[in-house]
């Protein structure tokens, strides 16, 4: 008569610890290598790149690119000034002699030409802002804070240059002398001027909004970190059914 055999433990029951080294959990080696490499200054950077390369250019390179962007964007303000001078409606003035002196007044007191001058500058500035944002995004997709600041500053400088150039190219600033030159009762154009100085920010506003939208829609995406190191890796025997 033989003694009854002890039944084997269930497959999902892990054997008790009987000494010896404890094997590391699944995925611990990869995480540990990355952590050790970072802590000891080894060949792994903070993204686990074995070549130690950082994502994107350094801050000094970004600042240089931003400076070039400011100059390039501001230079196009000259083109905006020429287009404003050509496309803006003229404000008709008339000179007359009263009490021995010259006076200048609007020929059409109810006309909206003065509003059209501001409106033309605003529309052109918005178009230039959107175009500059698209060009900068295509040339430098990663963006960055210095580049965004450069777009805003360059747009403002370009608007100031366009304003100054348009005034210089437009009719004479001395309306009394102009009235005397053309004669009494003769219609002449008023000098270009901006009634609302806030339109100088239209270029920067459009550039920032368009660049932000392009970056959000088509900009590079950072890889999402794995919340569970080693997740998805199958280890034979982890569930008690790997060995025979």
Helix content: 40-55%
| Tally of DSSP β-strands | 3
Q: For the report, how would you describe the main beta sheet?
A: 3 strands, antiparallel
Rough outline: elongated
Measured by DSSP, the beta-strand proportion falls in: 5-15%
Strands across the major sheet, in which order?
2-1-3
Unreliable residue runs: 27-56
Structure classification: mainly alpha
* SS summary, helix count: 7
Order of helices and strands: HHHEEHHHEH
- The radius of gyration computed from the alpha-carbon positions, rounded to a whole number of angstroms, is 36 Å
Mean pLDDT across residues: 77
Distance between the termini: 30 Å
Fill in the keyword field for this structure.
mainly alpha; single chain; 3 strands; three-stranded antiparallel β-sheet; 244 residues
Structure report:
It is a single chain. The protein is built from 7 helices and 3 strands. The longest helix has 27 residues, at 113-139. The chain has helices spanning 28-40, 59-75, 77-87, 113-139, 145-169, 175-182, 202-218; strands spanning 92-98, 101-106, 187-189. The two termini are 30 Å apart. Helix 4 (113-139) runs parallel beside helix 7 (202-218). Helices cover 48% and strands 7% of the residues. The chain has 244 residues and is mainly α. The protein has a 3-stranded antiparallel sheet with strand order 2-1-3, with helices on one face. Strand 1 and strand 2 form a beta hairpin.
């Amino acid at each position: 008569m033989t003694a009854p055999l002890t039944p084997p433990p269930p497959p999902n029951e892990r054997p008790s610890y009987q000494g010896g080294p404890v094997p590391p959990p699944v995925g611990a080696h990869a995480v540990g290598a990355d952590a050790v490499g970072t802590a000891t200054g080894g060949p792994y950077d903070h993204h686990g790149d074995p070549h130690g390369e950082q994502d994107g250019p350094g801050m000094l390179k970004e600042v240089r690119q931003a400076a070039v962007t400011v100059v390039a964007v501001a230079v196009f303000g000259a083109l905006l000034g020429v287009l404003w001078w050509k496309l803006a409606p003229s404000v008709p003035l008339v000179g007359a002699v009263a009490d021995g002196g010259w006076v200048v007044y609007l020929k059409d007191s109810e006309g909206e030409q003065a509003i059209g001058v501001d409106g033309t500058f605003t529309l052109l500035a918005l178009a230039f802002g959107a175009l500059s944002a698209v060009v900068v995004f295509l040339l430098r997709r990663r963006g960055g804070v210095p580049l965004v600041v450069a777009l805003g500053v360059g747009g403002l400088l370009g608007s100031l240059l366009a304003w100054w150039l348009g005034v210089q190219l437009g009719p004479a600033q001395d309306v009394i002398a102009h009235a005397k030159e053309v004669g009494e009762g003769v219609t002449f154009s008023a000098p270009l001027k901006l009634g609302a100085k806030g339109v100088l920010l239209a270029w920067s506003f459009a550039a920032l909004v368009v660049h932000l939208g392009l970056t959000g829609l088509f900009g590079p995406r950072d890889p999402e970190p794995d919340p569970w190191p080693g997740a998805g890796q199958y280890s034979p025997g982890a569930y008690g059914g790997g060995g025979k």
